[in-house]
């Protein structure tokens, strides 16, 4: 049996569950099963003949899965690169202008990005108080906005579409619990 | 035309200059923090656009001629509709008003008849403050690149 649940938090580690019959490789994993069938003698079931059933066990061939994973990893790498460039730009601007910038906030932001490993880059800003703010938006009016307060604290503002309304939530959460908060609010698709 | 202290008409528009650190050029997104000044600076300033005649490019040029702040290339000008903005914030329990606040000539700078103030934006650093800023961001109709100083 092959699990197609691909959600996992680490950027480059393999998925939690994937199995295939030993010795089988290639684009499809197959399994042969044997089943007893009723004979014409009318007696009780006995295994006179069997039917080989060749069943395709995976909806998506392994090569397609590998291609999706490679694409995901490339997107994550690009996000990491452009995020790093944006943070450096903000630091350079802050230094030139004499504006405050919180190293603790930057560290927390980087830690969150490592945990979340998003394939979409957020918009990134430097606030008047020196904190970094990351903002994911989509064209449905949804958002995940995170202000990294430093010392493991995050201020969040989330908007998510629910049928006919936009549900709005804001508050404060610990960095370690922030991903779960986003998931519980149904907003993970904004980062994916 | 509103007198000083009067609310800017709901049908009209306001223009706000947003500092470059609240603009992410790669994504094209402006953060709502761009609507607020620093703590203690008082209500944020905007320009009432219909103080000057259309087209929009002319209104922006006229505002630029009387502005008191510096425009940078990486900053942005954002345009909002007054009535829609007030309504959107009211629907989320924030009582906002945009009032006319003409500036007279001073320090060699010309008078600014378009100057207005956004009253009611809370100066708070909690998540509620971030929430209000994001509501304001949702009200942005247009974003323009300024002619830098």
Written account of the structure:
The complex is a heterodimer of chains A (192) and B (149). Chain A has 3 helices and 7 strands, in the order ββααβββββα. Chain A is an alpha+beta fold. In chain A, the strands form 2 sheets. A 5-stranded antiparallel β-sheet of chain A has the order 3-4-5-6-7. In chain A, helix 2 packs across helix 3 (175-184). Chain A is globular, with a radius of gyration of 25 Å. The two termini of chain A are 26 Å apart. Chain B has 149 residues and is an alpha+beta fold. In chain B, 22% of the residues lie in helices and 23% in strands. Chain B contains 3 helices and 8 strands, in the order E-E-E-E-H-E-H-E-E-H-E. In chain B, the strands form 2 sheets. Chain B has a 6-stranded antiparallel β-sheet. In chain B, a hairpin with a 4-residue loop joins strand 2 and strand 3. The mean pLDDT of chain B is 93.
- Unreliable segments of chain B (pLDDT under 50, ≥5 consecutive)? none
Average pLDDT value of chain B? 93
Work out the radius of gyration of chain B: 15 Å
Q: How many helical stretches of chain A?
A: 3
Sheet-strand content of chain A, in percent, reads 25-35%
The count of β-strands of chain B is 8
Summed over residues and divided by their number, the pLDDT of chain A gives a mean of 80
Quaternary state of this entry equals heterodimer
Order of helices and strands of chain B: EEEEHEHEEHE
Q: Distance between the terminal alpha carbons of chain B, to the nearest Å? A: 30 Å
Q: Termini distance of chain A?
A: 26 Å
Class by alpha and beta content of chain B:
alpha+beta
Number of strands of chain A: 7
Helical proportion of chain B? 10-25%
Largest interface: A-B, 30 and 22 residues
Q: Provide the succession of SSEs of chain A.
A: EEHHEEEEEH
Poorly predicted regions of chain A are: 1-35, 42-49
């Amino acid at each position: 049996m092959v699990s197609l649940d691909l959600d996992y938090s680490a950027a480059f580690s393999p998925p939690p569950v994937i199995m295939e019959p030993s010795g089988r490789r290639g684009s499809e994993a197959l399994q042969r099963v044997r089943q007893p069938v009723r004979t014409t003698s009318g007696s009780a079931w006995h295994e006179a003949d069997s039917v080989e059933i060749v069943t395709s066990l995976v909806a998506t061939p392994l090569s397609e899965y590998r291609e999706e994973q490679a694409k995901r990893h490339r997107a994550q790498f690009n996000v990491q690169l452009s995020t790093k460039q944006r943070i450096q730009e903000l630091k350079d601007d802050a230094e030139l202008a004499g504006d405050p910038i919180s190293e603790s906030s930057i560290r927390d932001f980087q830690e969150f990005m490592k945990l979340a490993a998003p394939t979409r880059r957020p918009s990134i800003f430097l606030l008047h108080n020196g904190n970094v703010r990351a903002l994911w938006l989509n064209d449905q009016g949804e958002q995940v906005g995170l202000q990294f307060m430093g010392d493991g604290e995050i201020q969040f503002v989330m908007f998510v579409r629910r049928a006919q309304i936009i549900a709005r939530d804001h508050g404060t959460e610990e960095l370690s619990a922030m991903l779960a908060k986003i998931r519980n609010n149904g907003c993970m698709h904004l980062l994916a | 035309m509103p007198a000083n202290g009067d609310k800017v008409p709901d049908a009209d528009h306001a223009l706000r200059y947003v500092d470059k650190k609240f603009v992410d050029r790669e994504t094209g997104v402006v953060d709502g923090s761009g609507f607020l000044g620093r703590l203690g600076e008082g209500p944020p300033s905007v320009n009432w656009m219909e103080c000057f005649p259309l087209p929009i490019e002319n209104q922006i040029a006229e505002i630029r001629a009387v502005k008191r702040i510096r425009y940078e290339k990486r900053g942005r000008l954002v345009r909002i509709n007054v009535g829609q903005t007030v309504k959107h914030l009211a629907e989320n329990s924030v009582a906002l008003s945009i009032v006319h606040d003409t500036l007279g000539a001073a320090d060699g700078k010309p008078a600014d008849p378009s100057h207005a103030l956004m009253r009611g934006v809370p100066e708070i650093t909690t998540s509620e403050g971030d929430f209000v800023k994001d509501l304001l961001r949702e009200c942005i109709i247009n974003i323009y690149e300024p002619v830098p100083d």
